[in-house]
Amino acid sequence: MTKLRTTLGALLAGSFLATAGMAADGAQDGKSVIFLGADDICEYCAVYNDQIRKMAADKGINLEVVTNKFDAAQQATQVDQAIAKKPDAILMWTIDGTALFPAMRKVQRAGIPLLLIDVQPDQAREDLWVQYSGGNYEERGSKAAQLMVQALDAKGMEKTGGVIMITGMVGQAQTISMTKGFTETLAKLAPEMEILGAQPGNWDTGTSTQAAAGLFTKYGDQIKGVYAAEDIMMQGVLIAAERAGLDPTQMAMIGDGCEPVGIKNIKAGLQYGTVLQSPVDEATFAVQSMVDLFTGAEMPKSVYVPHPMVTAENVDEVCQPWPTK
Amino acid sequence: MSTATLAPSSRLSGLFAPARVQATVIQIATVVMFLLACVSIDNFASAANLSSILYAASTVGIAAVGLASVTISGNLFALSLGATAAFSSIVFIMASGLGVWPALAASLLLGVAFGALQGLVVGWLRCNAIISTIAAGSLIAGLATWVSDGRTVLAEGGPTWLGSGTIVPGVPWQAVLFAAIVIVGEVLMQRTRAGWELRLRGTNPDAAELAGLRVTRMVILSYVLAGAGAAIAGALIAAQSGTGNLRVGADLDFSAIAAMLVGGIAIGGGRGRIIDVASGTLFLAVLTNILLVNNFAYEVQLMVKGLAVLVAVTAGALLARKSR
After folding, report:
1. Among candidates B169, B297, B59, B48, which has minimal Cα distance to A216?
2. What is the domain partition of chain A in residue ranges?
3. CATH superfamily name and code, A138-275
4. What is the pLDDT of residues B201-240, one digit of tens each?
């Protein structure tokens, strides 16, 4: 009897969940979401914006895309405008995690669910948002350090000597996290290696060329490896190395992002490795985050896209070409 | 007293005349700073480091020379240089399969076209120069995004001789091009009717118009030169990396304005020489390099550069007042 009751109970519960699931499925149809993102001026952003538009449309979500040129003050104003439109949710690529906390609080007070992507602000304030989906910048820095050690082993070089870093913009959450991940992991894996110097490359090839040229002039032959926090910045490092008469194939050159120029340099043997951060993966995760919100699915506070390490051996397999329009 | 003894002192007083004192101070400061760095910083005088300074100076300097014609003609600044350079870098790489010269010509044509458009709006339609160029910058950036889909464009063959070649160790071809443009610009501004008209328009626009000078044509010409300068700068940056994208020239507007004003071009128009723009550019390039080579923290670099620009401009103003 007990067994029969249990079986019936299970069947009832199952049919209820199935019904609820069917009701929830498609709950995102017609929902309006305002996406406050970064301008197409950055290649990664252009691919991301294009993909999220298409994927949200496929799921029936009305996504309004509002962008800025990496201007936190402008984004704060855009948050006010978005709140006034009373959307079902706001999806935000936080240009500056710290500076936008007051804006996030406004969204919370307005009772609008806030989903964050790409840049994860200080998790101590995670009560302000429902979910963060995107990259784990500290992990990316850590993977870059692992790649550097792997490169030194592969090239038969001792794990001693100096390393220089070309970072993103000073003060940005992603710059701080990537630098932390890289320095801490390198200290663990190769304690005899020393970080000689670091300069911002501001996510730009030209600035990175100048920054690396200065460090090559100062440290020259002491440098065994270079970590550039983005492949387009590594391109600048390679230009500076060539001008300084240094052979990049005899150094551990590590970039990040699996960007087209990085893929080209890895295949040419000029760059040892990179770490994947795919705009397609990120857009997929962001759309899933919206769907989960509207269907009432369980939502962990942080969901990270995968960041596999990439070398010449797996570059074709892991670094898929970014889709075109 | 012979003329031979008078000439040097008169030349010297000319250098420190109110109109020239800031430019002279910057030229002296650049030489002193360079020489001190050569003797006190290891590897500063190496060919690789010198070429690094010249690469940085060439791109900013060429854009600043073009911009100077707008400022001297009395229209303050063109704030579309960065967008023009970005679009130009994309066009240069897209056309690079045809060879360096056709690609450079395509970029130049683009800069001239957008410059002429802004010149017509400001010179002919008499629209506000700042607002017009900001709007033009937005239009150009939008078109560049549309053409490139916001993606980085890669050259098939990588950097070209224009991007990485040197005429002698330490002196890249880009620096030769910069020097040539400075010489041509200096001659155009100092020795031709167009140059005089540009300066007179900057000194007193109403008087220039009443005097029957070719004011509208000169304003259009100044924007054409600014567009051409920004386009060449964008092409040179693209040639260095073998890539073109919308990030190219992100700091170009500010860097070119700073180089030009530090060099001694009067913000109100009418005063300053193209050679001064070159001095201002080299001053900032050497200073930036010294800070980088010493691996100063970014915030220290910002403070020192800001302070140096402030001291240079203040010293020029004070000396000019004293000389009056």
Report:
1. B48
2. 32-135+279-305, 138-275
3. Response regulator (3.40.50.2300)
4. 999 988 998 888 999 999 999 999 999 999 999 999 999 9
